[in-house]
Amino acid sequence: MRDRSEITSWLTDMDGVLVHENTPLPGAADLIRRWTETDTPFLVLTNNSIFTPRDLAARLRASGLNVPEDRIWTSALATADFCASQIPGGSAFVIGESGMTNALHEVGFILTETAPDYVVVGETRNYSFEAITRAIRLINAGSRFIATNPDATGPSADGVLPATGAVSALISKATGKEPYVVGKPNPMMFRSAMNRIGAHSESTAMIGDRMDTDIVAGIEAGLHTILVLTGIADQTEIERYPFRPDEILTGVHELLDS
C-alpha cells in the first residue's frame, strides 16, 4: 500500500463524502479550502449527469462548500469526453438533462434523432416513453448504446426513483444490447478526470463512501484509495468485498490532521 505522503492530486466523491443532503460533512469546507489555497490539483466527482458543473458548484456553495465549477467532474462530462475520443464531431440522441446535452455540445457533438452515432442514456427527472421507444429503434438500427452510469435508483424526498441503470435495463431488454457504461465503477471516469487535471495514478488518491463504485474503480485505476464512513459503507459492508481500500477513515476531517 502506498504512503499518503506521496499523494499530490486528489479525486473525491461528493455525496456521502463532502455533503449529506446539502449539509457539509465535518472537515469538508476546510479540506477544499486547503486544496484551493495550496494549488493542489483536485476534482469532485459525481455519477449524477442531470446537472452542469455550474449548477453543482452553485448547489455546493449554497451548502457552504466553495468548489469552482472547473473542479467538478460529472459522469456526463466523462461520457462526452469518451464519445468525442471515439468519434470526433459525432452525433447523439440523448435521454437526459442539460448536464448531458451541454457536455456533448461542448465537445462538438450534434444532437439528432436521425441515425445518430450514439444513443446516450443519462439521468432525467422525466423519462418519456416516446423517447425510450425512439432510443430502442435507433439502437436496433445501428446506433451505439451508451449509459452515463449504472445506478438503478436515485433518492428523493418521497423514496427511491428509477434512475439510469433501470431505464438502460429496459432498453437492453427490448434491444438485446447492453450499454457501455462510462461512469463509476468504470475506471475510465477516473482516468478522464486525471487527464483533466494533469494527474498521474501513482500520485493520485480517490476518496469515496462506496466500496462497489468509488473504491473498486479507484483500485482498478491504480489509485490510492480512501474509504470514509460518512456515507453508504460501514464495517459490515466492507467485509462483503474481496478487496480493501488503502485507508478507512471516519470522515474527511481526518485528512486535515496530516
UniProtKB/TrEMBL annotation:
Entry keyword annotation includes Metal-binding: yes
InterPro entries: HAD-like_sf, HAD-SF_hydro_IIA, HAD_sf
Originating organism: Pseudolysinimonas yzui
Cofactors required: Mg(2+)
GO molecular function: metal ion binding; phosphatase activity
Keywords in alphabetical order: Carbohydrate metabolism, Hydrolase, Magnesium, Metal-binding
SUPFAM superfamilies reported for this sequence: HAD-like
Name this polypeptide is given: Haloacid dehalogenase
Taxonomic classification: Bacteria, Bacillati, Actinomycetota, Actinomycetes, Micrococcales
Pfam families per record: Hydrolase_6, Hydrolase_like
Cellular-component GO terms for this entry: cytoplasm
